[in-house]
Input
Amino acid sequence: MFKFCDKCNTKIGFRQKFKLWNKSTYEGYTCENCGTKYKPTKLSMLLDFMVIWLTFVFVFMSELNLKIGFFLCFILLVTVNLVTPAIVVRYKAVE
Output
């Protein structure tokens, strides 16, 4: 279980976390129980950009991209769509 809201201590499961954060990662979210709005922190957004940028560099600047290009593109898609929104991006309440 993951903590969803700091004020009302609502908790959600792992699958709901992926659905919610992948849908609106950069806009933030609102707690349905108490209405608290959450936005991503600037540091986590910078870290998110760096992870995506490094993944692109590994995919497109590799000298072996003809041999393992499809595998690296798959890693890029997984990183950008699943790993980064769920692990890297952190939220804080907006008052």
The beta strands are 2-3, 11-12, 29-30, 37-40, 91-94. The longest strand covers residues 37-40. The longest helix spans residues 65-88.
